[in-house]
Structure formats: structure tokens, C-alpha cells
Task: inverse folding
């Protein structure tokens, strides 16, 4: 059915769904506006005046004269005022004023659409088993990753624009820390971290050299191993810098959510959700997981419990389940963030002095205004983990079955295909078919260079790295909020 076929129809249908249906039924809006999240409204100036005992409006402000000009002094109230904020459920009208709400809605809804396209494509490949079609769901996954990185980059640039705060220094420090960490991880032997990156790069270099030899060019590797690891470390440091504040924010929300949770099951799920990146990191530590699970020491002999392909499949499923758990716990974390408004007011009551009504209103309203920023910091790493795992499954030639069958790729004899086209087709139509055949041969040559071994090693490392960055930053944030902040 051509180069794409049924997958193009699925893509067009999903694009139509995103245009017609998602504006009315959006998962992003439902996560915020289903009635479970409640935000704190800032008090009006009249309410603050009444609480402060200033009933006379005309004498509520003191005027001062400077050079003939009357300067009004803003209304101030005692910090220990008996103030209780009113709550209100988040509605769709409220979200219109939120900062970064369009970016949040687009990322979540597009990720859902890309996941649906991926599932439909996987079902199609499982039953039809096409051999000459391009998997268009990979393009959707790559677009999701690009959107997530773009959003995180946009959020990080705001921290660099703050002159007085230390956010810029934190991002730069963690960026250098993750660069050193990436270089250290990349030199670790495969006996401890079994990404398959060394094997994949060696296969890529050999395939590229063979391709260049066939083209009559000098048979040199397109890039050295040191250069490859250096640029990969730079890319990893950027990802680590982008994930710094999402991890720090997650730690604070985790502590606040634990204080709100009253049921043991909810507290257990919150702990599992916080430790989920650590579980993902340990999945690639060979002595702890793979060697122990596949060959457990049972008496004098070790009996393998599963094959290596089965372990790879279970690893993919475990990452997806942990991502689903993180999505399910999103509302608990967002509500814990919204409660910061009342928490700030309670902290203010313990202080002496006075505060202006405008500053108090800004302090309360700022929490709800940045709700979508916090939601993006929570969702974007989750989206990156999920779709990197989906790319790892497809490009790494893994299987979803617990007992996967070995997948073999049969080589195509391009010379026979070209000769048959030249000999059997008329001249005009034959030239067009020959052009299509040449494009197909070129794509197959690229497949021979960029093999599943390369993608398996590279995507395994990137999946592990995202989880490692999230756990490192959230662990540092947990230590900071637990022991370094002054209550």
C-alpha cells in the first residue's frame, strides 16, 4: 500500500481528532478541572481592612506631601492577622489566566494522541507484519520528545532571567555536575551498566565503514568513540540542567503530599512514586538486577529464571507501569502545591511586623498563577520517560510479549529488484519505479548503518539517564527541604 499506507490514514484521523474533538474533550483540562483540585483565593482589600479593624475607608491610607504632590501610602495590616483563605474548585474559566496553560494542554494532549497512534501502529504491525513500510509512530514519539525538551528549555530560561535569585547558579552547577557524571558513567564497563552502548557504537562504525567502502570512499569511521561520548555527555548535561528544578519541585510536593495523605495505601503509593526513578536506574545495573534475577543463586547451581529477551520485555513493562503510577499521583502532588498558599499565610502569621495588602494578595495569587508551570515540570519528565521507552522497544527490536520470539530481518537483494524493474517496465514508468527503488535501497542502506544494536544501546542509556537525573535532583531536593530550610 505504498510507503506508509494504513499508518498515514491513522495519522490523518488522529490529526482530525486533535483538531475537532480535543478542544472539547481534553485530558489536560480534565486533570486540572475535574473538581478534585481546589485553589486558595486571595482576600480582597475590603476583607483585609475589616479583619484589621479599619472600617473607615477615608482614613485607611495616610497621605504625605512631597513638593506639592500628594503621595498615598499603601494599606498595611499586621502579619499576625486572623486570616483564613477561601477555597474554590479549579474550573476551565480559571485556567484561562494560568501561565503556560496552552503549552501544558498541547504537550499532554499531543502525548496522548502520539501514544494512541503508537498503540494502533503496534497492533497493525503485530497482525499484518509489513516489511516495506516506515513506522510513522516513531515520528510521533520524536515530536513528543522535542516538545517536552522545548518546554523544559523554555522554563529553564526563565530561571536565567532572574537577576537576584540563585536559580541561574543552581542550573549551571547541576549542568556541570551532570556533565561530569555522564562522562564517568560512559567509561564504566558493561559488566556493571549493561546499556549495550559499546556494542552498538562498534556495530555502527563497522557498518558505516562498509557502506563507505561500497561507495568508493575512504573507509574511516564517521566519528571516533571519544567524540561520540563527549557530545553525548554534553547532551546529557543539558537534559540534567533542564530536569533540575522539576526534581527539586517534586521533592517539595512529595513531602507536602505525605503530610496531607491520611491513608496508608496513599502514603505507600507516594513513596513508590518518589522511588520510581531509582527502580528504573537499578534495572540497568547488571549485578543487582539482571544477573541476580536471571541466574539466582539457588544452592550449588544457578537456574536461569528467564531469558535475556524476557528480562528486556519485563523491564519495558515495569517502566511503563511506573509512569502510569506517576500520572495517577499527579493530582495529589498538584493539590499539595496549591496548599502552599495557606502554608505561606500560616508562616506569615508567625512573623512580627506589617505587610501591605498588595504583597499579601500577590503572595496568595502567585501560587495558583503558576499551577501549569508546576504541572509541566511534573508531566514533561514523565512524557520523556514514556516515549523514550516506546522508542527503545521499536527501534531496539524488542517485543511486548513475556516470551518474545526471535525477530529476524531478512536481507533484500537490491540488485535483483533493480534488474527486474529495468527489464520489465516501460521506459517512462520504469524511470519512476527505478527512482522509488533507489530511494528504498538508500533507506535500507541507512537501516544497515543505524542498526537496532545502536538504538538499543543509545535509547537504553537515555532512558536510564533521564531516570537518574530525576532521582538525583529529587533526592537533593528532599535533603534540602527536610534539613536545610528553616521552618
Result:
Amino acid at each position: 500500500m505504498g510507503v506508509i499506507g494504513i499508518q498515514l490514514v491513522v495519522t490523518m484521523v488522529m490529526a482530525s481528532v486533535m483538531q475537532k474533538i480535543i478542544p472539547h474533550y481534553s485530558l489536560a483540562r480534565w486533570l486540572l478541572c475535574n473538581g478534585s483540585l481546589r485553589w486558595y483565593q486571595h482576600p480582597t482589600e475590603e476583607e483585609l481592612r475589616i479583619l484589621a479593624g479599619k472600617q473607615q475607608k477615608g482614613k485607611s491610607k495616610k497621605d504625605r506631601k512631597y513638593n506639592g504632590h500628594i503621595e498615598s501610602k499603601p494599606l498595611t495590616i499586621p502579619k499576625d492577622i486572623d486570616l483564613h483563605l477561601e477555597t474554590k474548585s479549579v474550573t476551565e474559566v480559571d485556567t484561562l489566566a494560568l501561565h503556560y496553560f496552552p503549552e501544558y494542554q498541547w504537550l499532554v494532549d499531543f502525548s496522548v494522541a502520539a501514544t494512541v497512534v503508537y498503540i494502533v501502529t503496534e497492533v497493525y504491525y503485530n497482525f499484518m507484519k509489513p516489511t516495506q513500510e516506515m513506522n510513522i509512530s516513531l515520528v510521533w514519539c520524536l515530536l513528543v520528545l522535542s516538545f517536552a525538551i522545548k518546554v523544559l528549555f523554555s522554563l529553564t530560561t526563565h530561571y536565567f532571567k532572574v537577576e537576584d535569585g540563585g536559580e541561574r547558579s543552581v542550573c549551571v552547577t547541576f549542568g556541570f555536575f551532570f556533565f561530569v557524571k555522564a562522562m564517568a558513567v560512559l567509561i564504566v564497563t558493561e559488566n556493571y551498566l549493561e546499556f549495550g552502548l559499546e556494542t552498538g557504537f562498534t556495530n555502527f562504525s563497522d557498518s558505516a565503514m562498509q557502506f563507505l567502502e561500497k561507495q568508493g570512499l575512504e573507509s574511516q569511521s564517521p566519528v571516533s568513540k571519544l567524540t561520540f561520548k563527549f557530545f553525548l555527555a554534553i547532551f546529557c548535561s543539558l537534559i540534567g540542567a533542564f530536569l533540575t528544578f522539576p526534581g527539586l519541585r517534586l521533592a517539595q510536593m512529595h513531602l507536602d503530599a505525605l503530610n496531607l495523605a491520611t491513608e496508608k495505601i496513599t502514603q505507600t503509593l507516594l513513596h513508590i512514586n518518589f522511588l520510581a526513578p531509582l527502580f528504573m536506574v537499578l534495572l540497568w545495573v547488571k549485578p543487582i538486577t539482571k544477573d541476580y534475577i536471571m541466574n539466582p543463586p539457588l544452592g550449588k547451581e544457578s537456574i536461569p529464571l528467564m531469558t535475556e529477551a524476557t528480562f528486556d520485555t519485563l523491564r519495558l513493562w515495569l517502566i511503563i507501569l511506573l509512569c502510569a503510577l506517576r500520572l495517577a499521583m499527579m493530582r495529589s502532588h498538584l493539590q499539595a502545591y496549591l496548599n502552599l498558599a495557606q502554608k505561606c499565610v500560616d508562616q506569615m502569621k508567625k512573623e512580627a511586623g506589617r505587610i501591605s495588602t498588595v504583597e499579601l494578595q500577590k503572595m496568595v495569587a502567585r501560587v495558583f498563577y503558576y499551577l501549569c508551570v508546576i504541572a509541566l515540570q511534573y508531566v514533561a519528565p514523565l512524557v520523556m520517560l514514556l516515549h523514550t521507552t516506546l522508542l527503545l522497544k521499536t527501534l531496539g527490536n524488542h517485543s511486548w510479549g513475556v516470551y518474545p520470539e526471535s525477530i529476524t530481518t531478512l536481507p533484500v537483494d537490491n540488485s535483483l529488484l533493480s534488474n527486474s524493474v529495468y527489464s520489465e517496465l516501460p521506459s517512462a514508468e520504469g524511470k519512476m519505479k527505478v527512482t522509488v527503488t533507489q530511494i528504498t535501497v538508500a533507506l535500507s542502506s541507512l537501516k544497515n548503518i543505524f542498526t537496532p544494536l545502536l538504538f538499543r544501546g543509545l535509547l537504553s542509556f537515555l532512558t536510564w539517564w533521564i531516570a537518574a537525573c530525576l532521582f538525583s535532583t529529587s533526592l537533593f531536593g528532599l535533603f534540602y527541604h527536610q534539613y536545610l530550610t528553616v521552618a
Q: What stands out?
A: The CA atoms of residues 80 and 349 lie 4 Å apart. Confidence is low (pLDDT under 50) at residues 55-64, 406-426.
